[in-house]
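= Protein in question =
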Amino acid sequence: MTTFKDIQAAAVARNGGSAALGKKLPRAKSDRALRAVGDDRYLSAMSLRVFSAGLKHAMVQAKWPAFEDIFHGFEPHAVRAMTDEELEALMGERRIIRHWGKIKSVRANAAAMCEIAAASGGMGAWLAAWEPAQTVDLWDQLSKCFTQLGGNSGPYFLRMVGKDTFNLTPYVLAALRHWSLYEGTGKGKRERAKLQAVFNALQAESSLPLCQISMTLAQSID
């Protein structure tokens, strides 16, 4: 039966040593660090993820200072207060990406974040409260509470802000199949529950963050 040590050994060998692999491994923030981040930074990161989907990330990043200016520094209460007329006017704003659905999502997500923050003491506190074994449940809640955070967008947002998560990239899924740990597509609640169980077992064995287990898997095969 495949162990995480087997996977890690293959990743180390493929990358030319433990140090080289270590440089590629992401770092998860502590619960305390997550709580210390302002809600405006979480809304900015969430919006960046939404606007980056399907586009060149470098292009979106280059425009982001203008987004910060236009959306009031992504302060959730200020964005929630933007009128329909203000949002509609942004379709003529050449400094940003003029995608109506994504523009509308910023205000909708600001409103959702205000509600979560009021109930939990901040978006960071809400994220910190989710345990690693609840990762796929957190993905599901992100998809339900926020606009355009379905599919892999929720996990990518979590990785951006430093909340520990595994990601279902094609490389990770291929590695899971290669090591005979999982054969499915990763789509749907039942399949994601199976994946959660696999990652729970790998974490119990390795004591590593989910993000590092995920990357080690991706780096373990060609």
